[in-house]
Every structure is written in C-alpha cells, then in structure tokens.
Amino acid sequence: MRVYVNGRLVSKKDAVVSVFDHGLLYGDGVFEGIRAYNGRVFLLDEHLRRLYASARAIALEIPLTPKKMAEAVVATCKANRLRDGYIRLVVTRGVGSLGLNPYLCKNPQVICIAGAIQLYPKELYETGMAIVTVGTMRNHTEAINPRIKSLNYLNNVLAKIEAINAGVMECILLNPQGFVAEASGDNVFIVRGSELVTPPTWCGALRGITRDAVLRLALEHGYTAREDVLTRYDLYTADEVFLTGTAAEIIAVTEIDRRKIGEGKPGPVTRRLAAAFAEYARHTGTPIE
Ligand code: PMP
To answer: In a designed cystine with 199, which of 29, 162, 203, 277 is the match (CB 3.0 to 4.6 A)?
Structure first.
C-alpha cells in the first residue's frame, strides 16, 4: 500500500505523523470518507467542497488548492490500483506546542489513504438492521457544529458504544431539543407513503454526500423529498426508515427501540432507491486512469 503524506506517496510503515500533531493531541483537523466505484472517485468535487468548508469552519488553511487535492486523491488511487474501495482524506492541524493554540501549528498535514471498506455484513442489506436511540445527545450546533466533519468524533464514538452495548450496530442520536439528528456515522431518512423526510442539518446532522444524492434520486424517481424536524415517534411510525452514508450506502432499518418498522423488512422505496443509487454510483465520478 502507498499512502499519500504531504505530497509524497510512501509505504505504509513510513506513513506517520508526529505525536505532537494537534490532530492527535486534540482531534484538531478535518477529514472525508470517499468511495471509488468502477474505476472512478465518486462525487469527489462534493467531498472536496465539504472538506474545505469544514476546514474553513475551524480556521484551518489547507495548504493545497482543491484542484491539487483532487489530483492527490486520484494519484493515491492510481498508486494503489484502486478501482473499488474507500478513500480516507485527512488534514490535521499539524505539529504545535502542548498547548491548545492552533495558530502555533504552521504545517497542516495532508494524508490520503486508499484502501478497502468494511461495510455492514451483507445479510443486513437483505434483512434490514435493528438500531436504538441513545442517551448521548448530538453535539449542540454552537458547541461543535455537526456539519463540520472533524477529527473529533468522540460524540459519535460514545453513541456507538451505547449502540454496541445494546446489542446493535448503529444508533440514532437526538439533538439537545430531543429531535432526531442522525446516526453515529450515517444520515437517517423516513418514508411516509411516497414522501421521504430527513432532518435538516440545523437539527444536528452532517450534510451527507449520500444524503444529497438520495434527495436528488428520490425526485428523479417520482417521490417527494424534504427536510423536516423529526421525533422518535416519527421514526417508530414511519412506513420505512433507512440510513445513508458513504460506507453504508443505503441500508434499511427494520427495528428501532424494539418497535418493528413498517413490515419489519426492507420496504419497496428503500429497495428501489438502493438499486438506483448503486446504478448511479457505478457511472458517476472522476476517472482514476
Ligand atoms: N453523519 C455522520 C456523523 C457521518 O460520519 C457520516 C459519514 N461520513 C454521514 C452522516 C454520512 O455522510 P456521507 O454520505 O457524506 O458519507
């Protein structure tokens, strides 16, 4: 494996950052998870736009133009002969003092890893998954805005621990007002009749690239799709619920907090959108060659 570190493609063992990097010391940095399908990087421009927006939000200046960053991602895929896989793009604040002051960190580190992805077990895509809502609430938007895809994922990790302790693999976090925000690593949608609803980002959700793609695909397929505030009641009583994310793609949720959702199996809208998404992903993206 060759890993991109600050402009160089190096071996896995040489792909290292300093223990004084504020990415490690404080979770100070931003990242993206991106997919490659069929020899193309899926929605690379959208991911880069979000990466640069996350960096802007934390006053981190990325030392590369988006164009150069896109070239770095493609070069990393090429060096690893990646056609289908997962790309992790990371920008850390860089080395600084042991204090918090980010302005003392003069060299942000840019890392790109192109490898394999661990999806949920294949069977779960056939059966749908059981999830729970958890007590860990989503970060307040004025604490750490969940729109920032930062290296500080403890909020999500704490929620994931609760999910695993409850015997399931994913969970829903509510925001400080008690409204549905998102899953620990995915966005959430409900289906009511032919309408899809997902929480607005101000409720504490990342603006998922998959979420945006699903909103577009839903309209193309004759569904209505909108953002609205959702409660746990809305989840429990929906016809269908599904999660979206770069790694998960689209996965049906068939049980939440021991309530069966709809028929208790992946519903027709979820299945149709999952198929449409798979087709879209195969043909959309920046060529690696
Ligand atoms: N929410 C969170 C907290 C995430 O980590 C992710 C995965 N990046 C998502 C939602 C889904 O976003 P995307 O579709 O861009 O992967």
So the answer is: 203
Domains for the chain: give ranges and CATH numbers: 2-115 (3.30.470.10), 122-282 (3.20.10.10)
Mutation test residue for ligand 1: of 51, 206, 209, the one with most atoms within 8 Å of CB: 206
Taking each helix axis from N to C end, the angle separating 268-283 and 209-220, rounded to the nearest 10 degrees, works out to 110
What pairs with residue 223 in β-bridges?
Answer: none
Helix (H, G, I), strand (E, B) or coil at 125: helix
Instruction: Specify whether 149 is catalytic.
Output: yes
Q: Do β-strands 195-198 and 224-227 pair in parallel, antiparallel, or remain unpaired?
A: parallel
pLDDT in tens, the chain (289 residues): 999 999 999 999 999 999 999 999 999 999 999 999 999 999 999 999 999 999 999 999 999 999 999 999 999 999 999 999 999 999 999 999 999 999 999 999 999 999 998 779 999 999 999 999 999 999 999 999 999 999 999 999 999 999 999 999 999 999 999 999 999 999 999 999 999 999 999 999 999 999 999 999 999 999 999 999 999 999 999 999 999 999 999 999 999 999 999 999 999 999 999 999 999 999 999 999 8
- CA 70 to ligand 1 centroid distance, Å: 20
Which among 223, 220, 172, 221 has a CA at the least distance from the CA of 199?
Answer: 172
- The predicted model scores a pTM of 0.97
The reply to whether ligand 1 has any atom less than 6 angstroms from the CB of 54 is no
